[in-house]
């Protein structure tokens, strides 16, 4: 199968385009590896874009039951934002030790499914420590009153291991399953081999109890794997979401090419770095997925890349024709990508040119789709049906 031929100058151009070696290289021409290519004409936009607010390098957002939002900024600030986006309060109680270099920082934020009664909020961040840094998962009880907004009783409940040097591929996405377990993603930290190491929790999807301890019944524990591991062989996992049937979908950034959308199945090996539909940035070839059928292959693969960030499975009524579709933000592609499903199969159905790097995608309480742009002065956008 044809491979991209990349010169040292073009590699430098790729890195300069994304600001980080593996979070959004520029679109590269002339690849035919992927079943769906990253380069395509944008689709007409059937929505209006309403600017709501701006943030400093925002990373993630989630809605609370009353319509307020929690927004994280990379440098280490969490904000409680009013439903209309016009008021905000900084949330205290966030760890002071956050390594925000490179791809690090304050990352995902998700309320507990029982937030209305328990007030619990879960968040992830890159934490320095002996040996380097690693992604950590923490929780606290959100209290907002006349004296401000804060996380009470905040504590770290899980740390991916081992900590390593470097500032890439933390991942740190959070999702609760319909049966109440906590799924968490830990990237392989640009170290490649930990994704296949049964004792490391890097390069893995993890299934935990809500207190951060390994969930019972994880499929690989009896085979000598770390008991928290649900699936392995992943790279930089930047979106996870459950569909209406309870299936878990995950998207991750590939190396130089080969971004992926995966159906996550218990105990499966997704092949990285042994196989990929892309190659290493230094030009070393990685065998394609079809050469090793024992590894779970992606349902959608992009080469040229889209640099995926954020993932939702749409369930609202504001866009009824999109119910059950997935939406993925694109960093280097500066796009919003819509994916249609046919059971366990998937295909890219549309790509909307957003004119900016899209870091996060969320669904609002009324069914609107909300986006966060990447970078300084990143806008919060609300998408509603075109008038």
TrEMBL record:
Stretches assigned to coiled coil: none
Domain spans labelled Glucose/Sorbosone dehydrogenase: 55-382
Pfam families the record matches: GSDH
Presence of the UniProt keyword Cell membrane in the record: no
Annotated signal sequence range: 1-21
Keyword annotations from UniProtKB, A to Z: Signal
Organism: Sphingomonas oleivorans
Name the record gives this protein: Dehydrogenase
InterPro entries: 6-blade_b-propeller_TolB-like, Glc/Sorbosone_DH, Quinoprot_gluc/sorb_DH_b-prop
Superkingdom of the source species: Bacteria
